[in-house]
Amino acid sequence: MFAITVRVAKSLRRRFFMEVTGFMRNKLSLSALLFGTLVLLTASVAGQAGGPQYQKQESSAPVLTGFVGFGSSFEPGQQQLLPTFAPILLVPLGDRILIEAEPEFEGTYNHRSGQPWSHTWEKGIEYAQADVFVNRYVTLVGGRFLTPFGIYNERLHSGWIRNLQTAPFITAFEASDSNGGMVRGAIPLNGTMNVNYSGFYSVSSDTAWFLSDRAAGGRVGFFLPRARLEVGASFQRKLGDERRNLQAADFTWQLKPIPLDVRGEFARDPVIGKGYWIEGAYRMGKVPFLKAFMKKSQAEVRMEQFWVSPLLASATDTEEIETPTSDAKRVFAGWSYWIRPDIRTNFAYGREFNSTDGNRNLWTMGLTYRFAFPLTGGK
Amino acid sequence: MRTKLVILAILLVMGIALVSLAQTSAPQPPNPAAATNKASQAQSSSARHLPAGFSPDDAYKANCTRCHAEVPLSSSRKTKTIIQHMRVRANLTKAEAEAILEYLNQ
């Protein structure tokens, strides 16, 4: 019995060494191992930074945040239920490095009159990036990230943030992900204005969870903190088979005399089309009646317009196109109510005016829960 | 072969850069005077780079509530991580990020 055990152990050991040798022969694996070791070393050194000091400085903790949402949309002849789960993992390595990742799972349960319910689930990695705070003005980003084009994609698309559940028309070509590198940051100028910038390069990827186009571009924004006004411009060059330039302009303005936020965006893709949206959100806290209810409420209005490019207008296969395939206008009026600061309900009515498909009403209702949990102990 | 060597070199450089960056935030030798005044120094550091008369409260309102509603208060370690995330996402200046952290931890 003992002899059999020893023989089995020897055989296992031989196999292990053979596998290790084969593994080490592969230089790429070796380099990956080396890189992994260095990252672990970095984590350990960076971890010491948050350790005991002469006077203990509070270190940052890994956090799991994100949101869970349940939306619904009703229009003549069609009903949709739209569950979403988007967790975000944030892992700081000291004060200078942050690893962040967000997978997103979006379901669409669709019902058309006279047909049974059908459903699809879209899964993807929104971003999985390493941020290195090089200095006060420069942050390097590597990995998969939200393309810095316009403001909706990076800042507003998240379900618990957006004012209206339905995304504007132009986000169909504006919102994308990139795989590559990015340099970004913000520079305060003479105490009255901040200039913020993002520049990126992305490689092409057909991998299911990591789809991206080969492209380069960026955004520059001018922010006046006192006026709470920001104006930005974005540019992107698609470097794939169909080379083309995309442009966008955006603004956000939080008025001080009244609790009103106004923001808007224009974007143009020569192949798909061009369009704009403008949105106002009025926080009802100062309304003199139903105070308890109004304090947690916000009224929203959005107007948007989209013009199809001549190329898209003449296309025959438009099944995959997410923008309208003919010129369209849409208005929305919505109401948000926060049951708790982290639970938001939203109700909206919209009407779309389409040059070929006719006009239609659209009703949406949604509920989102924004969560944030530290993954290690904290106060 | 050449590609593999290039990848190896890039990974090595990235790794060394990560280590050196992390080391810059490693513990410094004890300095009693500096340690005693650390909190006030941090405050003045963020305030020094904000526009004159611009408070952490202003920094929070001008940047955070421009995009989303106020978020629930939470632990300071968690808040610090989320501020790092928002510094990238919303292109905040370092001074704004520090001021917002100060405001949220008050």
Order of helices and strands of chain B: HHHHHH
Largest sheet of chain A: 16 strands, antiparallel, barrel
Integer average pLDDT of chain A: 86
Q: Which architecture of the domain at 51-106 in chain B does the CATH hierarchy give at level 2?
A: Orthogonal Bundle
Order of helices and strands of chain A: HHEEEEEHHEEEEEEEHEHEEE
Using the alpha-carbon principal axes, give the shape of chain B: globular
In the CATH hierarchy, what is the class of the largest domain in chain A?
Answer: Mainly Beta
Strand content of chain B: under 5%
Gyration radius of chain B, in Å: 18 Å
Q: What is the helix tally of chain B?
A: 6
Helix content of chain A: 10-25%
Label the overall shape of chain A.
globular
Number of helices of chain A: 6
Give the tags.
heterodimer; A: 379 residues; alpha+beta; Porin; 16-stranded antiparallel β-barrel; 6 helices; 16 strands; globular; B: 106 residues; mainly alpha; Cytochrome Bc1 Complex, Chain D, domain 2
Describe the structure.
The complex is a heterodimer of chains A (379) and B (106). Chain A is of the alpha+beta class. In chain A, a hairpin with a 2-residue loop joins strand 1 and strand 2. Chain A has two domains: 1-48; 61-374, Porin (Beta Barrel), CATH 2.40.160.10. Chain A contains six helices and 16 strands. In chain A, strands 1-2-3-4-5-6-7-8-9-10-11-12-13-14-15-16 form a 16-stranded antiparallel β-barrel. The longest helix of chain A has 24 residues, at 2-25. Chain B has 106 residues and is an all-alpha fold. The longest helix of chain B has 23 residues, at 2-24. Chain B is globular, with a radius of gyration of 18 Å. Chains A and B meet through helix 2, strand 2, strand 3, strand 4 and strand 5 of A and helix 1, helix 2, helix 4, helix 5 and helix 6 of B.
